[in-house]
Known about the structure:
The protein has helices spanning 4-13, 15-26, 32-41, 46-59, 67-79, 104-116, 132-145, 158-172, 189-206, 226-237, 254-263, 284-291, and strands at residues 92-97, 122-127, 148-150, 176-181, 211-219, 241-245, 267-271, 279-281. The chain is an alpha/beta fold. It has two domains: 4-81, Up-down Bundle (Four Helix Bundle (Hemerythrin (Met), subunit A)); 92-281, Rossmann fold, CATH 3.40.50. The radius of gyration is 20 Å and the shape is elongated. It starts with a helix and ends in a 7-residue tail after the last helix. The mean pLDDT is 86.
Amino acid sequence: MLNFEKKGIFERALIKTKQKLLGFISSTKFDFEDLEEMLILADLPIEFVEEVVENARANFVRASDAIPYLKKKLIEELESNGKFTLELDKPNILILTGVNGAGKTTTAAKLANYYKKKNLKVLLAAADTFRAAGSEQLEVWAERIGVSIVSQQRGADPASVVFDATKSTLARGYDIMIADSAGRLHTKSNLMSEMKKIVEAAKKASEGVASVKSLLVIDANFGTNVLNQVSAFSEAAEVNFLIGTKLDSSSKAGSLISASIILEKPIAFVGTGENIDDIEEFDAESFVEALFEGVAEN
């Protein structure tokens, strides 16, 4: 069932992408070739676009009439990848990965705040030990939010931080531990090795008791380049879910959908603004409806 409140939140966050879509349609007569070009420029998967447009040509007289069909197909594709949920009968370990600048540290703080407001006991782990500002920033957020944090000195082994934080989660009865991590360029093999060690450390420390999930944080401004990131991190960190950030400052929100469809990774959360409360659990129907709101009428 469509969540109208969430749709409204997504619609505000997707304003730049929507303007791009609406601007494209208003500047053309909008035939099926225009539909195809619009979807490609929106960073949707090429194979998906070709299939949708081919079916649209066969079943609709006007390209604009195919928009409801397009939305339905997108929702089906996104929902087929599954949905993010916490396993409330056990501790949850969430490890955030991604390149520098994607918004991991802020996202970790937003998630901590989000779950604290749901009356869950939250622990943060500052495993970005290569960047002093990252740990310091997360410590400031932890104090503001009112949650505990595990951190070590700069240059400490990130896997050790996550191992200790996981052990603390089990020993002290935390419902959820959220770990920030380093994010140097995904093309550096040492970072990929570090990501693998971090995940393995969490699993070892959890002793099979906790649910360990790896979430890749991707900046919507990166466009289709996010696919390279997801592929690299998936191999190293066994990525389970995606988190999209900076949708409000990007006209390329379709790249998040593209990453989910091509790599069959569910989207768990999306950042909808700069404030600590600006994060929402992803809902495929609300997101797609918000993305194409008003497009069918043009």
